[in-house]
Design brief:
Elements: E1 13-14, E2 21-22, H1 25-53, H2 61-79, H3 85-109, H4 139-142
């Protein structure tokens, strides 16, 4: 099988002088963790709030723990960022932009449309806009061999 040339644009590679340098897993693990945590934070906080409202979690515990772990990962990434002030500012800006984008995406996902009404009013499940209504999903599609 052959990959299209465009697939190689997404590989975690960097040119480090003559030739092509490929990043090691150790170099991309922490940035990937921060990206994952920052991107998932708005959804996680919303879910934690729902758990608390349903009496399934003590108030604030999940939120504080998740925020603390996310902040610790960000702080660790910044420690290992280049000492150059411009580079550090660039990393901080990228993290902030990711957080803003994630919050906007989650807000859009849980709203019904232009009226801004939340989709969790019982009329439609959250996330239902991710799949076309005319598309049916069979259990066998979700669990091959079931």
């Amino acid at each position: 099988r052959h990959l299209a040339c465009s697939c190689f644009h997404s590989l975690p590679c960097v040119v480090v002088g003559p030739g092509l340098g490929i990043r090691l897993a150790e170099e991309v693990a922490l940035p990937a963790l921060v990206d994952s945590r920052v991107s998932a934070l708005p959804a996680a906080l919303d879910i934690f709030q729902r758990l608390e409202e349903a009496g399934l979690a003590p108030p604030g515990v999940l939120r504080r723990t998740c925020e603390k772990r996310t902040n610790n990962a960000v702080a660790r990434l910044l420690i290992f960022s280049p000492a150059d002030d411009d580079a550090r500012t660039s990393v901080e800006a990228a993290i902030e932009e990711g957080a803003t984008t994630a919050a906007a995406w989650w807000a859009q996902l849980v709203t019904r449309g232009d009226d801004g009404q939340r989709a969790d009013d019982g009329s439609r499940p959250i996330g239902s806009t991710l799949v076309e209504e005319s598309v049916s999903i069979e259990e066998a599609d979700l669990r091959p061999g079931a």
